[in-house]
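Hi R.,

As promised on Friday, here is the backbone we talked about, encoded as structure tokens. Could you run it through your design pipeline when you get a chance and send me back a sequence?
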């Protein structure tokens, strides 16, 4: 029940209604600030995509630097035998890259020798993970078949491996280093334990999920919500220190004291940020392999600190106690859970407002494009104006597996 896209949307709307009714202890909502927020985001979209040809929000955008698509550089060198093989490799890269994309911290950056790009935060993590993948760092046979990620290698990744791949040292610290390594270890173990999902046509690898999703397609069509549901089933065991219900691991899904109901599940706010971003990021390789992804609108906005920070910095989300923004939280604290759930609900309201200001309909410029165009970039821009380090509006402890 909680491991579905519609559960994320419904839980977020419940949280928003509580906030509108002034029934949350931590947050209030000023909906009058939505109009200027929409105007601000629309301006960012216009600047970044003057022709309004905004793609779906995905990890693939972070592999493009200065107009150069680094993934296409890998494609040009690869010797895949068919489109399915190419899709499996794309899955290998994007799944591992997204799972490594938790907040890097303000001090870390990555210097790429080939392009001379110096990138930080999400783009830096994308660049580092791509170069690691390209160099065969995740492959059983890096000399013969470098462009893949194999379960046996993922199980062996340690902090030192990540240190080297991500250029980490005392002067270039990366948050959650050990947590990221442990997450990849658990991914490797999970791949081996579920051959039905990850080893249908090859040895266990993240790319095996392509075959599992192809089976779930009907007449070449695969609903986006099915991608998410499959990911939540497949990757549930990799998350540590997460709630469970009835023996089922819930992943990025957290209890909140204001959420009540007759069923135990009613007390939880499902968010599934990384899994949803991964769902968006799997759309392109699926479609290149001839599988049409339908009903992308069933996925939600992402409960992460750029989108959430946008609403705080624009005055839509207001903490009841201003001192709350000077404190440090864990991801399970009600203050953070409420903020993230409200972010998802407000993104649903904001997207059509932004589209209207750009002369588009929600169908021609949907939420998935507003996120890319859009709210994520606007959140980063206003954070830089509000705070010297460009960080989120308050500090959330990162173990390398949430944001």
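Update: got your reply. Pasting your designed sequence below so it's all in one thread:
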């Amino acid at each position: 029940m909680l491991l579905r896209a519609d559960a994320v949307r419904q839980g977020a709307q419940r949280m928003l209604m509580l906030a509108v009714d002034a029934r949350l202890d931590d947050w209030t909502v000023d909906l009058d600030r939505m109009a200027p927020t929409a105007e601000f985001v629309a301006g960012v979209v216009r600047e970044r995509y003057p022709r309004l040809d905004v793609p779906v929000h995905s990890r693939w955008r972070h592999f493009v630097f200065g107009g150069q698509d680094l993934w296409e550089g890998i494609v040009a060198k690869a010797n895949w035998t068919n489109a399915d093989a190419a899709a499996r490799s794309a899955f290998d890269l994007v799944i591992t890259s997204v799972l490594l994309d938790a907040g890097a911290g303000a001090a870390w950056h990555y210097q790429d020798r080939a392009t001379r790009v110096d990138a930080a935060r999400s783009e830096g993590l994308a660049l580092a993970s791509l170069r690691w993948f390209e160099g065969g760092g995740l492959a059983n046979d890096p000399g013969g078949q470098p462009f893949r990620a194999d379960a046996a290698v993922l199980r062996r990744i340690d902090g030192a491996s990540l240190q080297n791949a991500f250029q980490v040292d005392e002067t270039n610290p990366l948050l959650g280093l050990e947590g990221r390594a442990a997450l990849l270890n658990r991914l490797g173990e999970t791949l081996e334990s579920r051959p039905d999902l990850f080893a249908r046509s090859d040895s266990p690898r993240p790319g095996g999920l392509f075959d599992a999703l192809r089976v779930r397609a009907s007449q070449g069509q695969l609903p986006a919500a099915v991608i998410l549901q499959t990911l939540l089933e497949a990757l549930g065991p990799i998350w540590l220190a997460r709630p469970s219900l009835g023996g089922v691991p819930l992943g990025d899904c957290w209890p909140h004291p204001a959420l009540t109901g007759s069923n135990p599940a009613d007390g939880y706010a499902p968010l599934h940020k990384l899994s949803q971003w991964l769902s968006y990021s799997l759309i392109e390789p699926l479609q290149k392999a001839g599988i049409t992804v339908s009903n992308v609108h069933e996925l939600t906005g992402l409960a992460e600190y750029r989108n959430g920070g946008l609403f705080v910095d624009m005055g839509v989300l207001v903490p009841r106690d201003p001192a709350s923004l000077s404190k440090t939280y864990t991801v399970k604290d009600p203050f953070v859970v409420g903020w993230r759930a409200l972010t998802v609900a407000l993104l649903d309201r904001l997207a059509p407002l932004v589209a209207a200001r750009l002369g588009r309909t929600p169908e021609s410029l949907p939420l998935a494009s507003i996120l890319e165009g859009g709210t994520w970039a606007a959140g980063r821009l206003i954070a830089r104006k509000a705070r010297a380090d460009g960080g989120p509006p308050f500090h959330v402890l990162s173990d390398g597996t949430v944001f």
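One thing I noticed while checking it: The CA atoms of residues 197 and 212 lie 5 Å apart.

Thanks again,
M.
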